[in-house]
Write a structure and sequence with these properties.
The protein has 14 helices and 9 strands. It is an alpha/beta fold. β8, α8 and β9 form a beta-alpha-beta unit. It has a 6-stranded parallel sheet with strand order 3-2-1-4-5-6, sandwiched between helices. It folds into 2 domains: about 160 residues, NAD(P)-binding Rossmann-like Domain (Rossmann fold); about 120 residues, N-(1-d-carboxylethyl)-l-norvaline Dehydrogenase, domain 2 (Orthogonal Bundle), CATH 1.10.1040.10.
């Protein structure tokens, strides 16, 4: 069992840190909002640090799951950042979804301090974090990956080293591109079925056994039909992720025409105040257009 720290107790980090505690690891947590720390400590065995630095002190592995590049810098660097409390030979695992350049920047700064760095964004959503079935896409050095892989296993069903630093983030970008296009197709298909007057419960059941089956269909189709979106991966977060993807595509020359269009659709949802709705809420734009003609 290892002495670890976990920084960021959001909808993903909270249960991930809980799995570490339940797996017998000695866990110290940090979160900017103290009330979440208190709730976590009421539910799990562990300790808290007043700053990322104090949480990371003497930890063999420090995990983080925060919002974006700026958040990653804020909890990692500076006098109160995690790096300041970590010892040589320890490993920093960043589960945040950031740019590949951010991962490379932190890895280089870690080398200067004798700290290993793994970028390790995840897929599987809140339910995957709660059920311990996340997919973790890692970038970094193999010996550092082998050190943390057995620990990550407590909340993942797949944890794979994709390549050097940044490869994990680039793989997550591929993931988000695929999800964005799939959700738009699913939204259009379900909207078509509703307009045609089909029994959508039967439609979903039969399609889920054919070539159209997907995680999104299995987990989101029924709630898309009934108009339930107050859960899951938020529109704001997908918009942040797609901005990273499109920036990276401009750098590497990849053409992403559908992704750019779906990104605009998510922008429209933000304009309607649906910022915290699940990403499957794309169907509401089609339904609004049908009602208003706009």
């Amino acid at each position: 069992m290892s002495k670890v720290a976990f920084i960021g107790l959001g909808v993903m980090g909270y249960p991930m840190a809980g799995h570490l505690s339940g797996g017998g690891h000695e866990v110290t947590v940090f979160n900017r909002t103290r009330s979440k720390v208190d709730f976590w400590l009421d539910e799990y065995d562990g300790a808290c640090g007043a700053t990322p630095r104090l949480a990371a002190t003497d930890a063999e592995v420090v995990f983080a799951c925060v919002g974006n590049d700026d958040d990653s810098r804020a909890v990692t660097l500076g006098a109160d950042g995690a790096f300041a409390g970590m010892t040589r030979g320890s490993v920093y695992v960043d589960h945040s979804t950031t740019s590949a350049a951010m991962a490379q920047e932190l890895a280089e700064l870690g080398v200067e301090r004798g700290i290993e760095f793994i970028d390790a964004p995840v897929s599987g959503g809140q339910s995957g974090a709660e059920n311990g079935t996340l997919t973790v896409m890692c970038g970094g050095l193999e010996h550092a990956f082998e050190q943390v892989h057995p620990i990550i296993d407590v909340y993942s069903r797949a944890c794979v080293l994709m390549g050097p630093t940044g490869a994990g983030q680039l793989t997550k970008m591929v993931n988000q591109v695929c999800i964005a296009g799939l959700l738009q197709g699913l939204a259009e298909g379900l909207n078509f079925g509703l307009a045609a007057g089909l029994d959508m419960e039967k439609v979903i059941a039969v399609l889920a056994k054919g070539a159209a089956q997907s995680w999104q269909m299995d987990n989101r189709a029924a709630t898309m039909v009934t108009g339930e979106f107050d859960f899951g991966f938020a529109v704001d977060l997908m918009r942040k992720d797609l901005a990273i993807v499109l920036d990276s595509a401009r750098d590497n020359g990849a053409q992403l025409p559908l992704t750019a269009i779906v990104d605009q659709f998510y922008g429209q949802l933000q304009g309607c105040g649906a910022n915290r709705y699940d990403t499957s809420s794309l169907i509401t734009l089609l339904q609004r257009t049908a009602r208003t003609g706009i």
